[in-house]
Give the backbone structure.
Amino acid sequence: MMTSRRPPLDAVLRQACERIDGADARALLAHALERPPAWLFAHGDEPIDAAALQRFEALLARRIEGEPVAYLTGRRGFWAFDLMVSPQTLIPRPETEMLVELALDRAPPEAALRMADLGTGSGAIALALAHERRQAQVVAVDVSEGALEIARANARALRLGNIEFRQGDWLAPLAGERFDLIASNPPYIGDADPHLREGDLRFEPARALSSGPDGLDAIGIIVRDAPAHLHPGGWLLLEHGWEQGAPVRGLLEAAGFETVVTHRDLEHRERVTSGRWPHGTLR
């Protein structure tokens, strides 16, 4: 990439920005240097050593081939955290923070609630709920043991003791138990959607992205089984695609949920649908 043996960091970064997004280049260079990205702003004149340059060029080549920055660095920010991620987990996205916010609105801070996160992946949703509601007990479920290893490591790093992790498919590991709130960001892309062959999605676990011809298979299973695991007045919250608000509302209403509402994100797209299991007083 560079002809000089020890080029300054600014020059390395400038050339990289001609090939990939500037924020991506900065994140990868900082990772290669084992420094925070902000460190680069005050040290642009410093020369890069050969080993770090070699690491950076390897990362740059992989990013050019399309690998997500989160997998290359092993980290992704979500809520107030810097989470460990891997190709075993879906990459947490900012729009999912809306699901956390809506769940917290329905979970009084001092109440000793039981909450569950289905398809937890890196643990992002469950960790945010456990962090913000320390009196609550949170159960995080995922079918992938590899994903659960990452989620457990994130919980240890955050020193959260009010969360546990269980392996299994959707609500199966919760047999015989009831909760005050169940949240999930399940796979909701249709199996034949061309976006699955584009960008970062090519590298993420397929089972965490797509679910049946219309993307609603997993959501249908969750809605079908959730009533047996909710206390009266308990909430079910589901993230979904921006064109799926109407069918998800229909599934919830047909299953007997009340107060069914679809919430729009900052781009005014339908993003999360919530419903309350009847005959209760939980907010």
About this structure: Strands lie at 75-78, 81-84, 114-118, 137-142, 163-167, 179-184, 230-239, 258-264, 270-276. The first helix runs from residue 9 to 17. The chain has nine helices and nine strands.
